[in-house]
Design goal:
- This is HIT domain-containing protein.
- One of its GO terms (molecular function) is adenylylsulfatase activity.
- One of its GO terms (cellular component) is peroxisome.
- With 120 residues, this protein is an alpha+beta fold.
- The chain binds guanosine-5'-monophosphate.
- The site of guanosine-5'-monophosphate has 13 residues, from strand 2.
Length: 120
């Protein structure tokens, strides 16, 4: 049986260069670009080019461990590239209660201002 194709999102259009984005990092697996509605001086989204069913973290299976690690490691590389030497925040929103709006897994990298805890 053929796998059911996962629904596409706006992020597929960004990956395919159908709509513009301010790309800050790209390799064969991962793309990172500035959020269109930044919540901090630095606000970058890090996404897998092939989401492989990862609409969000709740959809993760063991086979996704490598890409999940790659997203976090890329976030660290970009934090350094952005000069966030004093700290930063990583966020993964999941599902309606988690305020997820795009169902293509992504890591938010936020920095350049003091973060608060607990978050709202
Ligand atoms: P979520 O709420 O799903 O965790 O985050 C989705 C993020 O994608 C939001 O912060 C939103 O501002 C961002 N976003 C949505 N559409 C676009 C777009 O077309 N371009 C860019 N650069 N960011 C987008």
């Amino acid at each position: 049986l053929a796998a059911v194709p996962s629904p596409t999102t706006i992020f597929d259009k960004i990956i395919n260069k159908e709509i513009p984005a301010k790309v800050v990092f790209e390799d064969d697996q991962v793309l990172a670009f500035r959020d269109i509605q930044p919540q901090a001086p630095t606000h970058i989204l890090i996404i897998p080019k092939n989401k492989d069913g990862l609409t969000g973290l709740a959809a993760a299976e063991e086979k996704h461990c490598e890409i999940l690690g790659r997203l976090l490691y890329t976030a660290k590389l970009i934090a350094k590239q952005e000069g966030l030497n004093d700290g930063f925040r990583i966020v993964i929103n999941d599902g309606p209660s988690g305020c997820q709006s795009v169902y293509h897994i992504h890591v938010h990298l936020l920095g350049g201002r003091q973060m608060n805890w607990p978050p709202g």
